[in-house]
């Protein structure tokens, strides 16, 4: 008997039609709507995709990260390549040295290309985990790490990876599977250096005992004999593309062909050179010795090399390899790298000749039958002309006497399967130069690979040689195609484009299609982040800035115009907010994936500070969504970074480097917005950038350019970019408090100042009333036009009395450091004043004192140069005293003179100074000049392009592809420079060798690629040529930064004595260089902080020395990028470098000569007075002249003077009886120094 069915609502199913039934139906319907589809519920996780449905352990990527963390390596980086078969990833490992903080980066651990199909994965996710597994195998193959992997990857580890490892070890690549790949890399570099060192020692020994049959020497020493005479000389590529007229080229070809040169060589030389003399030099340098006309060589000279070693077997192998035509030193190195295996070395040389690298042929195993069978056939065909030298080698003598005497072909069985691989070939013949034989071999191998593979080919090769060899001898092809393998030196390509290792990648164009998968993902992440507590807090701070209220206006203006000008006072938030408004707008419109905003800053510190601030406001890390690029340092992530702050020079270099295609717009193809900040400063780089951007905008209609200025003077920029119809304009109101102005007459009335009473030293409270003493006009006439420091002191007293107990600092603007010292001397007489200096020459610690609160009962009084106008903000300043003066450099192109003059500041600068008083509350500005003087001040300072020499700018413009007329380009800048200044700059570039007939020379291109002053760049190029590169880089870094010595006013004599202790009488630069070297040695031995006391004792700035060290590192990187230095050159490990780079580092005479050569034409003649003699016990002796009687003259100015701060100011004699003096800077103040 079953249980009774319940009909109430609490029990079973409700009756149909009842309220309970309807409610249950509605609830079931809602539940069904909310429930996700079955497919979504079953979507597999990453762990299930990679490890399988039942896998619960860790995944390869996680294990890789954990291993790097345990080893104290950097986080692994994954690269991804898309191929037809899917995705292939690789891992890049990095390690930071805990002591030096130097980062070592290993090459990507790529899977062997022969097994590419195994590495190809269907998705990028699987490719990352495959790459992580392979990298783990590389570094953990001796552990049981595979036990922690998912089944699929465990199988790969135990089977496929082990097989690949066995192949690599068999090939001699055991180092690939070391547990510490960084140590393995270092050991390989040391081993390579040792091998190279031993090789040089052997070659030096050979040279000393060489046979008299070789009678060719480099220089008077007679060392480095034989045809590797140039193998250890630095390659100096100073050619450029200069077209010789066709008629002249034919005449040169006929003339030199009659002299015995091959016509093909003469024609090749004429394409690489610009005149007859260069063609002859090219032929004598690059045509191999065995192909030169007899008159080019000494009598009884025999080309070739005589080896002298104790290892006769090795010597015989090298001779046989070299007889093919390869250089003997290359044969020796190849033989050693192949462990003495002559057959393997021969195969390697041929593969390098044909393909530029060794072949990947697998070792032969069961190919005996094919080779042996063909040998029998060849013997039957050629009879006595055939001879078998071994089971691997045969020789066949040719019957073609028309080609050469005793022509013999030698064939060696290949290391790969035959006939699937071409045999190793050599040609023995008298009268055929080595490079022609190599050219024939290369062409034959290339033809055989395309036509003979898969069938016995020796007979066909001999037939090919006898048919084509006469034609090859007649026209062997270009020397440069063979020279890289056939000779220790190779001819330069006839092009002004020099080898640069780091080329700018071809950038993808902006994809303006909205709502791409990447853009949708970015938008979802952005929307999610807006609701976080941290982001809400940052938004509240941003909303308090004046710029926030102009957000919509900025977005509308930018979207409607190609060019937009945003002006706003300092502190309005324009620099931090505008770029974020643009990015957020693109994200909202579904274009976040395309966004790439580049914002330029005139100073490195600004780029770094803004990147930090904006990334904080967006609650992200620097280098993710927001990054920066400055010279020598960058933090960006490709595909992730949307806002990049860069220095103006970095963006200019990007445009210059990317102009190789002839279209400068291609360098910014992936950029959506270019924001140029601080355009009101009108720096040289900014004006240059604006000129380039205007040209780029003509072809990039989708590119947006935003100019940001601290002053509302947009008219000049509006006109430059096409007028009000083409340019948007947004003004952001400032956030400053009102500031009252007092002019000179007001100040005198308020303070009751009188010059005569000030000289008698009256007290303020005892000063008589102004009206009773004298008229205002008389006081103004008495004061004159100079700066009155007693008036400044009286004004400080007056301000302090008005403020009483209220806090607040006083900021005084003065033109220079001397004026600051005199001002502070007057202010120190005020009891409760806390005087502080502020200028660029102060140490950072001294500069930071102005931001600190003054002692209790004291008032902070800061005397500053114009560095306090815009660069920094002192929050507690409530009063400003403005002298209205500034020291400004000007350039006179007529006499090539830079002058430092004290002039009236501009009205725009005075406005900036005034604004400093209203940052925290209502302030007062005391202007120590009249209203009339203010009205006569210039509106704004002259642009820098009109105030400085233009050599560097002209070189940068000329280096741009597609710009041939420098003067025309500069005439189209926003404020064109004077034509005489441009002409002078171009003339200077011709004098230093950067231009030749208005064309860029190779030296000029090198100089344009090195981000340094022209003279510094030239010095570094010279250092690489003459074997003192480290010294020249250090000197260039010192010139770029400043002298590391400091000279406090109260200890000037002690500072001068300390500096003199480093001097050897050869000038300021080498003295500073000696100080840096001693500091560097101490740092390496003791560490940075232990050298601080030594720096203090010797009056050296520790920070400046570190800045010099930083600039050295940047210059080293630039020299490597320009292919001047090898990428393996190490500054931190000099012992690993080739000794030739610094073999003359201790030769101070050479250093002086290189400095003079780099500075030329900045040379002054030393004019000594008539000699004087004094009697002594041993007779009369010459007396050194008094320093004041020695005169100096240069070409432009006549007599010039040495500045008192120079060590040579009191010099009475010069080392090496020097008659000339080189100088880096010339400036006119009271004299021409």
TrEMBL record:
Annotated protein name in UniProt: DEAD/DEAH box helicase
Keyword Zinc found: no
PROSITE patterns named among the record's database cross-references: HELICASE_ATP_BIND_1, HELICASE_CTER, RWD, UBA
UniProt KW keywords: ATP-binding, Helicase, Hydrolase, Nucleotide-binding
Chain residue ranges for the region called Disordered: 1-46, 199-218
Signal peptide: none
Chain ranges of the Helicase ATP-binding domain: 555-730
Gene3D superfamilies: 1.20.120.1080, P-loop containing nucleotide triphosphate hydrolases (3.40.50.300), Ubiquitin Conjugating Enzyme (3.10.110.10)
Pfam families cross-referenced by the UniProt entry: DEAD, DSRM_DHX29, HA2_C, Helicase_C, RWD
Domain Helicase C-terminal: 795-961
Domain (UBA) ranges: 311-352
Basic and acidic residues bias locations: 24-43, 199-209
GO molecular function: ATP binding; helicase activity; hydrolase activity; RNA binding
Organism for this UniProt entry: Aspergillus ochraceoroseus
Residue span(s) of domain RWD: 373-472
Record-linked InterPro entries: DEAD/DEAH_box_helicase_dom, DSRM_DHX29, Helicase-assoc_dom, Helicase_ATP-bd, Helicase_C-like, P-loop_NTPase, RWD_dom, UBA
């Amino acid at each position: 008997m079953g249980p009774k069915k319940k009909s109430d609502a609490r029990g079973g199913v409700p009756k149909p039609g009842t309220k309970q039934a309807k409610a249950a139906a509605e609830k079931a319907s809602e539940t069904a709507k909310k429930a996700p589809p079955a497919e979504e519920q079953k979507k597999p996780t990453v762990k299930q995709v990679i490890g399988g449905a039942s896998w619960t352990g860790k995944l390869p990527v996680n294990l890789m990260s954990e291993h790097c963390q345990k080893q104290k390596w950097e986080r692994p980086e994954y690269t991804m390549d898309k191929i037809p078969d899917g995705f292939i990833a690789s891992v890049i490992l990095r390690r930071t040295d805990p002591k030096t903080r130097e980062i070592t980066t290993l090459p990507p651990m790529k899977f062997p290309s022969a097994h590419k199909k195994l590495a190809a994965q269907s998705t990028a996710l699987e490719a990352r985990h495959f790459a992580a597994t392979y990298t783990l195998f590389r570094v953990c193959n001796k552990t049981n790490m595979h036990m922690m992997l998912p089944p699929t990857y465990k199988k790969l580890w135990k089977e496929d990876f082990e097989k690949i490892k066995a192949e690599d070890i068999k090939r001699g690549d055991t180092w690939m599977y070391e547990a510490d790949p960084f140590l393995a890399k270092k050991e390989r570099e040391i081993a390579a250096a040792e091998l190279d060192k031993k090789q040089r020692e052997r070659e030096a020994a050979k040279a000393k005992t060489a046979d008299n049959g070789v009678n060719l020497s480099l220089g008077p020493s007679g060392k480095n004999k034989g045809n590797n005479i140039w193998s250890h000389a630095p390659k100096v590529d100073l050619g450029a593309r200069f077209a010789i007229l066709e008629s002249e080229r034919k005449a040169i070809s006929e003339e030199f062909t009659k002299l015995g040169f091959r016509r093909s060589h003469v024609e090749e030389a004429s394409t690489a050179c610009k005149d007859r003399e260069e063609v002859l030099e090219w032929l004598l340098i690059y045509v191999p010795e065995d192909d030169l006309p007899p008159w080019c060589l000494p009598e009884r000279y025999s080309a070739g090399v005589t080896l002298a070693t104790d290892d006769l077997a090795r010597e015989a192998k090298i001779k046989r390899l070299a007889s093919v035509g390869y250089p003997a030193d290359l044969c020796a190195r190849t033989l050693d790298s192949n462990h003495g295996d002559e057959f393997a070395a021969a195969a390697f040389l041929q593969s390098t000749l044909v393909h530029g690298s060794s072949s990947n042929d697998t070792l032969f195993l069961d190919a005996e039958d094919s080779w042996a069978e063909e040998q029998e056939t060849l013997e039957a065909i050629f009879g006595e002309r055939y001879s078998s030298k071994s089971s691997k080698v045969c020789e066949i003598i040719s019957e073609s006497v028309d080609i050469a005497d005793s022509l013999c072909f030698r064939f060696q069985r290949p290391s790969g399967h035959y006939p699937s691989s071409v045999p190793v070939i050599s040609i023995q013949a008298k009268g055929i130069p080595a490079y022609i034989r190599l050219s024939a071999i290369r062409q034959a191998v290339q033809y055989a690979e395309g036509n003979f593979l898969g069938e016995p080919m020796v007979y066909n090769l001999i037939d090919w040689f006898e048919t084509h060899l006469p034609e090859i001898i007649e026209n062997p092809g270009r020397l440069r195609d063979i020279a890289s393998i056939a000779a220790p030196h190779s001819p330069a390509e006839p092009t002004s484009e020099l080898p640069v290792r780091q080329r700018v990648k071809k950038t993808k164009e902006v994809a303006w299609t909205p709502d791409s998968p990447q853009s949708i993902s970015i938008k979802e992440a952005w929307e999610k982040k807006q609701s976080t507590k941290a982001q809400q807090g940052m938004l509240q701070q941003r909303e308090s800035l004046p710029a926030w209220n102009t957000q919509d206006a900025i977005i509308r203006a930018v979207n409607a115009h190609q060019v937009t000008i945003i002006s706003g006072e300092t502190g309005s938030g324009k620099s931090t907010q505008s770029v974020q408004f643009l990015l957020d707008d693109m994200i909202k419109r579904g274009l976040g994936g395309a966004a790439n905003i580049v914002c330029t800053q005139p100073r490195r510190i600004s780029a770094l500070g803004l990147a930090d601030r904006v990334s904080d406001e967006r609650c992200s890390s620097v280098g993710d969504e927001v990054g920066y690029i400055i010279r020598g340092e960058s933090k960006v992530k490709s595909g992730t970074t949307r806002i990049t702050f860069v220095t103006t020079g970095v963006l200019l270099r990007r445009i210059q480097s990317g102009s190789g295609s002839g279209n400068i717009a291609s360098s910014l193809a992936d950029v959506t917005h270019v924001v140029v900040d601080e355009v009101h400063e009108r720096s040289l780089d900014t004006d240059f950038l604006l000129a380039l951007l205007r040209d780029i905008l003509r072809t990039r209609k989708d590119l947006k350019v935003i100019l940001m200025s601290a002053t509302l003077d947009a008219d000049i920029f509006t006109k430059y970019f096409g007028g009000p119809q083409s340019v948007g304009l947004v003004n952001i109101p400032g956030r400053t408090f009102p500031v009252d102005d007092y002019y000179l007459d007001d100040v005198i009335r308020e303070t009751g100042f009188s010059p005569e009473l000030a000289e008698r030293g009256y007290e303020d409270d005892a000063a008589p009333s102004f009206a009773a003493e004298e008229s205002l006009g008389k006081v103004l006439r008495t004061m004159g036009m100079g700066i009155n420091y007693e008036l400044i002191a009286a004004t400080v007293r007056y301000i302090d009395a008005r403020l009483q107990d209220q806090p607040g600092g006083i900021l005084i603007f003065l033109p220079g450091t001397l004026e600051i010292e005199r001002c502070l001397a007057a202010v120190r007489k005020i009891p409760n004043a806390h005087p502080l200096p502020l200028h660029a020459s102060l140490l950072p610690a001294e500069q930071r004192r102005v931001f600190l609160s003054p002692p209790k009962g004291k008032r902070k009084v800061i005397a500053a140069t114009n560095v306090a106008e815009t660069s920094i903000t002192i929050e507690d300043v409530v009063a400003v005293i403005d002298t209205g003066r500034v020291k400004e450099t000007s350039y006179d192109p007529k006499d090539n003179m830079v002058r430092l003059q004290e002039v009236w500041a501009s009205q725009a600068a005075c406005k900036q100074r005034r604004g400093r008083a209203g940052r925290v509350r209502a302030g007062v500005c005391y202007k120590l000049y009249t209203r009339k003087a203010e009205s006569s001040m210039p509106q704004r300072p002259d642009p820098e392009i009109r105030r400085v020499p233009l050599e560097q700018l002209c070189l940068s413009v000329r280096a741009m592809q597609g710009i041939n007329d420098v003067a025309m380009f500069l005439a189209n800048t926003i404020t064109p420079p004077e034509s005489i200044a441009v002409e002078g700059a171009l003339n200077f570039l011709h004098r230093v060798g950067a231009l030749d007939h208005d064309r860029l020379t190779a030296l000029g291109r090198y100089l344009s690629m090195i981000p340094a002053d022209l003279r510094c760049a030239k010095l570094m190029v010279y250092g690489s040529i003459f074997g003192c590169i480290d010294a020249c880089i250090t000197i260039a870094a010192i010139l770029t930064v400043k002298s590391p010595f400091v000279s406090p006013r109260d200890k000037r004599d002690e500072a001068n004595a300390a500096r003199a202790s480093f001097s050897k009488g050869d000038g300021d630069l080498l003295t500073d260089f000696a100080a840096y070297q001693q500091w560097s040695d101490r740092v390496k031995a003791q560490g940075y902080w232990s050298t601080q006391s030594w720096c203090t004792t010797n009056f050296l700035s520790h920070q400046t020395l570190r800045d010099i060290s930083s600039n050295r590192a940047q210059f080293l990187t630039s020299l490597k990028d320009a292919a001047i230095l090898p990428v393996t050159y190490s500054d931190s490990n000099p012992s690993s470098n080739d000794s030739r780079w610094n073999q003359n580092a201790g030769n101070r005479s050479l250093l002086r000569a290189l400095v003079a050569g780099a500075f030329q034409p900045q040379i002054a003649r030393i004019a000594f007075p008539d000699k004087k003699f004094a009697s002594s016990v041993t007779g009369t002796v010459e007396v050194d002249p008094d320093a004041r009687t020695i005169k100096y003259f240069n070409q432009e100015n006549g007599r010039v003077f040495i500045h008192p701060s120079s060590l040579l100011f009191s010099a009475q004699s010069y080392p090496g009886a020097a008659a000339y003096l080189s100088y880096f800077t010339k400036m006119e103040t009271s004299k021409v120094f």
